[in-house]
Design brief:
The protein has about 675 residues and is of the alpha/beta class. It has 21 helices and 20 strands. The structure holds 2-acetamido-2-deoxy-beta-D-glucopyranose (NAG) (6 copies).
């Protein structure tokens, strides 16, 4: 639609008292886009139509890009309005996302754009404004019930949506003209045990100044930037924001979603609020993710997921309810039960998820720019893989005080993972016990743990003090009072490496908690499973956490797959601080760990014969030994970058085992 106005005005002029001027004002309205043109000439109409087309094309190319980042809600509303204009039924509107996902996917696929989206896990969230597009990478620690909210409501003749927002200025008196939709809430914590180098390895873009991406109400309450909004689609929400604020201040609005479980004592739960981080990393920030349209279908507890969506926080929820009076108000306006009031928005940001992708820590690493290059080289040149193995092996040897045999074991242990489950056996796990570590040399364990932390994306060093065994909660436990899954140390993402320092254990009494914790560790090592306590029933969750134990000879708490007595010949040295060398080792480990591997049938027969022969020499060799050797042989050939087992690697493993059992004999 085009509106045309003729306007007159006068200009003061030096040679005439007044100069009468006229201009044409054109207003173009198309969907939500409103553009003004001012033209001095009579032919302005044609001219401005041309300009209008150019601007429209520019908006389509650039405007969208700016918009998704700076004003994602504007983009969402535009898509909603478009769907409405195309005559989508209410049922369709509730079922689909009106192309929002596609829009953002296309936008993010552009080169490097993903790294421009601020990562709320690695930055100070107070720098961000509500309603900006953000990323979050975390582990799903808990899954809450479905939350119902007013997804759309009618304002006059027009439907408006509150999807992807937390609070909305929905008029209270709405009766029929509203739609109740639902979304799923995931409580996510930053990946437990993630090592600092991973965060530092993120491209600088994701950590730099984000002010340029901010829009909406800036942290100090300034207005949005008009320059950007005049170029973007969906500028129409300006007014809405203002009314929103008014309503907000007057407290007149009804919550699109409110919160709290009726059964639990809110004040109580507030005081004991706990981020529920498995490893208790207090400096990190969890996130409450709201997932729409069943996008969580493939997501399980403990999965590591990257979410992209709209950051929301509600200042009203930032402070704990002060009085009983306020409390009862909150509970009476409840729409449905939900826990988020227990998590103050100032501490736990909300992310309205638009896109998500499941990550293994390894497929994530391979996309990091600092590792990517080496990855490509490994893929193309097998000999480079072998070189990288050799150089890593040397480093591990010096970390282990010159013990080359132990380093070989450590290398394949670091590559181990559960690659199949034949219940109850977790095939491929390979826990390692370095024994003969001296309790006085506490720094040996510490150094080793630091070296592993510098190589692997996620790891955790756990000295087994008697006190912490007796006190800590290892297996997660459901608390029906607060309706949360209370986390335990063993709620870890796949691939996290665990180093247990048994030498820290002093003599003393394990109480019931301690005994249970030791049992949990045993189960973890033996079956790669952790039992979650749901009070009325227990549930075994599979886990994939390689365990390295440092012990001296005395205790006999846990069953490790391999025991290697250490023979340090020199002083232990630290891993290099050369980042590019370290990156090479990291990408090597990441690369070979993911290699597919097979054992050809022809070789299988040879191996079996070999085992029979070995058994005739040594009666103690049994099927467990055979399984261990197979696992080791697999990892050995993978460590050379090879995807098929060769007889050569099989012999290498047997040689390692022979040398190790020799050490064990005179241990
Ligand atoms: C809630 O917990 C607080 C603090 O523990 C307590 O004083 C209060 O009586 C409890 N209220 C109810 C209804 O249980
Ligand atoms: C809720 O709050 C309003 C104003 O803050 C107050 O007038 C009203 O009485 C409260 N309702 C209850 C049930 O406490
Ligand atoms: C790994 O990548 C770095 C640059 O990121 C490069 O300097 C180095 O040579 C590469 N190393 C190997 C083994 O490809
Ligand atoms: C075990 O001991 C720790 C402290 O030593 C204590 O906090 C815990 O409650 C005890 N647990 C049991 C079940 O006795
Ligand atoms: C490690 O090996 C030593 C020596 O055999 C043994 O005493 C200890 O119990 C083992 N520890 C684990 C966790 O397997
Ligand atoms: C090991 O370290 C100690 C103390 O730092 C030193 O006296 C000794 O010479 C070192 N030994 C070797 C072989 O480097």
């Amino acid at each position: 639609m085009i509106f045309q106005y003729l306007a007159f005005f006068t200009l003061p002029c030096s040679f005439l008292p007044l100069l009468l001027c006229w201009i044409y004002i054109y207003i173009y309205v198309e969907g939500n886009d409103v553009v003004f043109f001012v033209s001095l000439l009579g032919g302005g109409h044609l001219l401005s139509v041309v300009t209008w087309s150019i601007v429209k094309a520019a908006v389509a190319m650039v405007g969208m890009a700016i918009d998704c980042l700076a004003n994602p809600l504007g983009a969402v509303r535009t898509m909603f309005d478009r769907a409405c204009a195309e005559g989508a039924s209410l049922e369709e509107l509730s079922r689909t996302d009106w192309g929002v996902k596609d829009l953002f996917q296309k936008f993010l696929l552009q080169d490097g754009v993903i790294w421009q989206v601020p990562d709320i896990g690695s930055m100070d969230i107070s720098l961000l404004s509500s309603n900006s597009l953000v990323r979050f990478r975390g582990m799903v620690q808990d899954m809450f019930d479905v939350e119902y909210y007013i997804g759309a409501y009618k304002d006059g003749a027009k439907w408006l949506t509150t999807k992807y927002t937390d609070v909305a200025s929905v008029p209270v008196e709405l009766e029929n003209d509203k739609q109740i939709w639902d979304r799923r809430i995931l409580y996510c914590v930053p990946v437990p045990g993630e090592n600092t180098w991973v965060k530092q390895a993120l491209p600088p873009d994701s950590k730099t100044d984000v002010s340029m991406y901010m829009s909406g109400v800036a942290p100090h309450g300034e207005k949005r930037f008009r320059e950007t909004s005049s170029l973007t689609i969906g500028t129409c929400d300006m007014d809405e924001d203002d009314t929103f604020k008014e309503n907000f201040n007057e407290g007149k609005r009804m919550r699109g979603s409110t919160t709290s479980a009726t059964s639990c004592n809110i004040t109580d739960a507030y005081q004991s609020f706990d981020f529920n981080m498995p490893l208790g990393e207090a400096v990190l920030r969890p996130c409450l993710v709201k997932v729409y349209d069943g996008a969580d279908a493939g997501i399980k507890l403990n999965d590591v997921v990257e979410f992209i969506g709209i950051l929301t926080f509600d200042p009203e929820l930032s402070s704990a309810p002060q009085t009983e009076h306020e409390l009862s108000n909150v509970t009476t306006t409840l729409l449905h039960e939900d826990l988020s009031i227990l998590m103050p928005a100032s501490k736990v940001p909300r992310l309205q998820c638009i896109l998500l992708r499941k990550l293994s820590s390894h497929n994530f690493l391979s996309t990091l720019p600092c590792l990517e290059e080496n990855f490509t080289i490994f893929r193309q040149t097998p000999s480079v893989v072998k070189q990288a193995r050799q150089s890593l092996l040397q480093r591990l040897t010096s970390v282990l005080g010159g013990d080359c045999l132990a380093a070989e074991y450590l290398l394949i242990h670091l590559l181990s993972k559960v690659h199949a489950r034949v219940d109850p056996i977790a095939v491929g796990k390979l826990s390692l016990n370095f024994t003969g570590c001296n309790a006085e040399e506490r720094c040996f364990a510490q150094n080793l743990a630091e070296s592993i932390a510098a190589l692997l994306p996620c790891s955790h060093f756990m000295p087994l003090y008697l006190e912490s065994l007796n006190r800590a909660l290892f297996s997660p436990k459901k608390d029906y009072q607060s309706n949360r899954l209370i986390t335990g140390v063993l709620q870890l993402a796949e691939g996290t490496h665990l180093i247990l320092d048994e030498t820290a254990l002093t003599t003393g009494q394990l109480n019931a908690t301690g005994v249970q914790n030791v049992q949990s560790l045993k189960n973890l090592m033996e079956w790669q499973k952790v039992e979650y306590d749901f009070e009325f029933h227990k549930m075994e969750m599979p886990i994939d956490v390689p365990v390295l134990i440092l012990s001296h000879a005395k205790s006999k708490l846990f069953p490790a797959d391999i025991i290697v007595p250490l023979r340090c010949t020199g002083n232990q040295s630290k891993l290099t601080h050369d980042e590019s060398e370290l990156n090479k080792c990291r990408s090597y480990l990441t690369f070979v760990r993911e290699l597919e591997h097979i054992i050809e049938p022809s070789l299988q027969k040879i191996l079996e014969d070999d085992l029979v022969a070995a058994r005739q020499e040594d009666r103690s060799i049994n099927t467990d030994t055979f399984h261990r050797w197979l696992s080791m042989a697999r990892l050995m050939s993978v460590s050379f970058g090879e995807q098929k087992l060769t007889i050569e690697h099989w012999h290498k493993v047997k040689e390692l085992e022979r040398r190790c059992s020799e050490r064990l004999r005179c241990f």
